[in-house]
Amino acid sequence: MPRQPEAGKAFLLSTDTLSKLLALLKKKSPQRSFPNTDTNIISLVNKTGSRVASFNALEIDESSYPSTQNEYFSDNTFRGITPSVDAKRLAILLEPTENNAVSQAAISGVCPVYVNVTNVEHTHAVAGNSSVLVSGTSGPLMMLETPTSTGEQHLKCLFTPDSVPAVTNGIVHGVSLENFTDTSTQVDVQVTLSNVEHVSVGDIITSLNYIGYSGDLGGECYVYYHGDGTGNEDGTFSLMGARCPE
Predict the structure, then answer these.
(1) Which of 11, 110, 151, 222 is deepest in the core (most CB within 10 A)?
(2) What's the predicted TM-score (pTM) here?
(3) Measured distance between the N- and C-terminal CA atoms of the chain, rounded to whole angstroms
(4) Contact indicator for 185, 132 with CB cutoff of 8 Å
(5) Under CATH, what is the fold of the domain 169-243?
(6) Smallest Cα–Cα separation from 191: which of 220, 215, 169, 162?
(7) Domain locations in the chain?
(8) β partners of residue 242
């Protein structure tokens, strides 16, 4: 009769049994996927109530920012609403999007934008109670092409620093500066990509490996920043996972 395991006592498994158990767990456990590390693009659900054409703008609903790491992984899609006048948190849809449908949207960098040009001397695009932006002398997007006529048209635009959403919670992608193998290790991480307020590219932060992942020096890792919303740098970091270098 097979020996039964007893609580509190060590139970040895054969190599064959352990291999079968790990294979079964891997088969049944869903693989965690990390967020897209392209910080120019987000997933956006259209909550305007109607279809929105490609290269039109939506305002990012601030209430849709994830507040916990579990919330981020369960639903890392932001909500897009009709832009209010002079809205700063804008995203440009990269494809036509029906109401309640999800698509990719640009939040930084350069992309085509549908702009209603009211004056050919204008240099920027601003929100004006519509998904079609309006030209102006300043705004969250700078026109890289000089319009030659007025009216609605596609123009290549660059997001300005004022247009980048500032959030107090979020995912940070970085590189471990040391080896770590247990949950009590304080891991130094050098940030390489960030969309999080108070964390800049090149910063070195310390994170607690409380989830129990292990990794090597130079391995990629993801950290969740828990801000407190006060505007001070007294939030905490938690290591979410790591991938050892190949």
Answers:
(1) 222
(2) 0.55
(3) 44
(4) no
(5) OB fold (Dihydrolipoamide Acetyltransferase, E2P) (2.40.50)
(6) 220
(7) 41-163, 169-243
(8) 221
